[in-house]
Write a structure and sequence with these properties.
Elements: H1 22-25, H2 29-34, H3 65-75, H4 77-102, H5 106-123
Length: about 130
Amino acid sequence: MAAPLSATGLSNSLHSTFHGSWATSFAGGDRAMLTRPAPASVRVSRPRRSLPKMGNVNEGKGLFAPLVVFTRNIIGRKRFNQLRGKAIALHSQVITEFCKTIGADGKQRQGLIRLAKKNGEKLGFLA
C-alpha cells in the first residue's frame, strides 16, 4: 500500500536529517578546514624499485625452449647446468679457433661470443 500524499504531493515517509541551509553548514568547522592554508612544500618520495625476480627470464621463450626445459626436468638441474656449461665452453673454443683462422682480434672475438649468447637467448637455448 502506498504512503498517503500530503498537500504538496510528496509522500510523508520521506524524511531528511538535514536541517538548515548550505550557508550555515559551511559556517562551522567545515569552513575552517576548507580555508586552512596548504603546506608550503610537499615531500615526494622516490617510487619503490621492484624486487628482482628469481628465476630465468628466458623461461619458455624461443623455438628450442620447450626442449631445453623438458631435458632439464628429465636429467635434473645440476647435471643440466654442467652439460650446458660444457657446451658453452666448447662453442666459445670453436669461435676462438675461427677467429684465429680468419685473423680477427680479441675485440671481434668477444663480439662474436656476445652475438652467440644473444642468438642462444632468442632461440631458447638459455631457457
